[in-house]
Each structure stands twice: as structure tokens, then as C-alpha cells.
Amino acid sequence: MTLLAQRNSQLFSVQSVTSRANLMAAPPDSAPVPGAITEWLSKLAVLKGVPFGYLVPDEAMLPAESIRFFVLDPNWINALFEGATSIGRSSTRDAALDARLVAQLYAAVAPAGTVSGFVLRSNVVAGWPGIEVRAYDANHNRLTGVLRQDVLSPTVLLYMTTGQISYVDIGEPSEAMHFGVDIGQTSKSLRYVTVPAGAQPNTRPGDQVDKASVAVTYRSAGGGKRVLKIADLAKALETALVANNANLVPGTQQQRPFTPAEFALELVEGVQTVRFKNTTQEASA
Predict the structure, then answer these.
(1) Per-residue confidence of the chain (285 residues) as pLDDT tens digits?
(2) What is the C-alpha R_g of the chain?
(3) Strand ranges (DSSP E) for 114-202?
(4) Which of 31, 78, 133, 200 has its CA 20 to 30 A from that of 150?
(5) Contacting residues for 112 by C-beta, under 8 A, at least 6 apart
(6) Could you please report the per-residue DSSP string of 233-283?
(7) Angle at Cα 186 formed by Cα 129 and Cα 188, nearest 5°?
(8) Rounded to two decimals, what is the model's pTM?
């Protein structure tokens, strides 16, 4: 049995050498890169599978309620690819084969040239499960090549996109729109129903009237639930619209009627959005 095992071992060794020789003799572009390899390296190109400790090695770099912008160094990704593809490379023959196939491999994966993003650590990640992110470059162009928007933990969000981020708008899900006022709010901002001739350029119906608001009052017998005085609020909104010419018949100075439709428009509470600016931008290598 021992002799048989030795012969089997020698046979497998010969088969391995023969297989490698045939592989070296074949042209590097004779077959496409296997899909499993392309998929694996494509995930590595956007840091999937990379331990979080490699991305944020110290917790102090990402304290609670903070956001950190970054630009992905392509040299770091190249080193990551090199390490990943060197698994099993045990001879100069393997190294020579890798050198012949590297161009084909990179062409198959096609990693993005400029990639930037941010890591957000905040309770809003858990509080807004459908959080929406819109990233823009320095020329205010929307960056639409989103590569990742993943919740890594209940309070940590990783976002990556092609291009270099100048600022991002992070907001509640769009379906969160409702009517009313925020808890504890003592005033309600006024919105244009129609836009008068003297308004700022590009003002649209529904935009807020600059520095115009009405007081919000509550019933004293609301059982602790702060019930609005609807009639008083409606009257105050109607008066403010007249004073600001914000509900005129278009092209005239004639006031439009104040109906439940206008009242509903004034009470629309849009989704909350916060803008973060990347004030220390660095050009990618």
C-alpha cells in the first residue's frame, strides 16, 4: 500500500507539471476570464469583503455622529488585486503566467478610475432605514455612478460613487412627506401658492417665502397631545398670503380664494435633508 501511494503521488505531480506546461503554451487571450474571478475581483474593487478594520483602523477616526469623506487610491486597489491574484503563486512559472494575463484580467474587471465616498456613523442610519443620498461634484453635477450604499452596522453607512464628491444631500425617504408641523414648532413657514412678479428669479409655487411665517397655537385642553387650533392657523395663513402677495391670480393683483387646497399646501412638511460639504478635497492619484 505504501508503494502504491508513492506512485500515485508521482503521477499527480507529473499531471500538475503537464497541466502547467500546457497552460503556459496557450495564448493568454485564448479564453475569457472566468466569471467567478471577475465577480470576485469586481467586489474587491469596491472594498466588498475587505475587513472594516482595514478601512477604519481606529475608532477615533470615526466617532459617533460623524461623517468622513475619502477618495479611493487606485494604487491601493492595485495592491489589493495583486495580493488576491497571487494566491497559489509558488514558482517563477506562475509569476510569468500572471504577468501575461494581468492586462486581460484588469480589462475584464475594469475598475473605475476615480472613486470617492464617505462613511457615516450616526443614529440616523438606524432611524431612517430608507435613507436617501445624492452626491454632487464641484460643478454641482449629480454623481450617478453609485457603486455602493451599504449599511455595515446599525449605525454605519458606507457610500461610494464614481467621480469626486464635493457635497452630499442626505435625507429621509421621499414617502415620509406629510401634513402638519414639527413637534415643538411655534411657527410655520409660508409657501408661495402662486409666484408674484417681484419674487426672486427661479422661484416656483410651493417654495418658501423668505422670512415669512405665522404663529402656531395649540388648544389648552389637548390632553397633553398639543392639538392644533386649525381655524386660527388657517386664518393666520390666509392673512400672511395676502400680505406677501403669495396667492394672486397669475399676471394680476387679484387675490385668489383661500380654500382647503391652499391650506393643505401650506401645511406640507417635506422630508428633512441635510447637506454635508467635503471641505478638504484631494485630487485622486
Answers:
(1) 444 344 344 333 434 443 444 444 444 455 677 788 888 888 988 999 899 998 899 989 999 999 999 999 988 888 888 887 777 677 777 677 777 777 777 778 888 889 999 999 999 899 888 889 999 999 999 999 999 999 999 999 999 999 999 999 998 877 656 777 766 678 888 999 999 988 888 899 988 898 899 998 888 765 666 788 899 999 999 999 999 999 999 889 999 999 999 999 998 877 778 889 987 655 443
(2) 31
(3) 115-121, 132-136, 146-153, 156-162, 167-171, 178-179, 187-191
(4) 78
(5) 45, 145, 147, 162
(6) HHHHHHHHHHHTT-SBPTTSSPBPP--HHHHHHHHEEPPPEEEEE--S---
(7) 75
(8) 0.61
Contact of 155 with 126, CB cutoff 8 Å: yes
The grid coordinates listed for 267 are 401645511
Task: Tell me the C-alpha distance between 209 and 241, whole Å.
Answer: 9
Grid-cell match 432605514, residue found: 129
- Which amino acid does the sequence have at 31? A
Quote the cell numbers at residue 237. Answer: 395663513
* Helices 92-109, 74-85: inter-axial angle, 10-degree rounding: 130
Reference 180, options 267, 113, 242; nearest CA is 267
- Looking at residue 228, the DSSP 8-state letter turns out to be B
164 alpha-carbon distance from chain centroid: 13
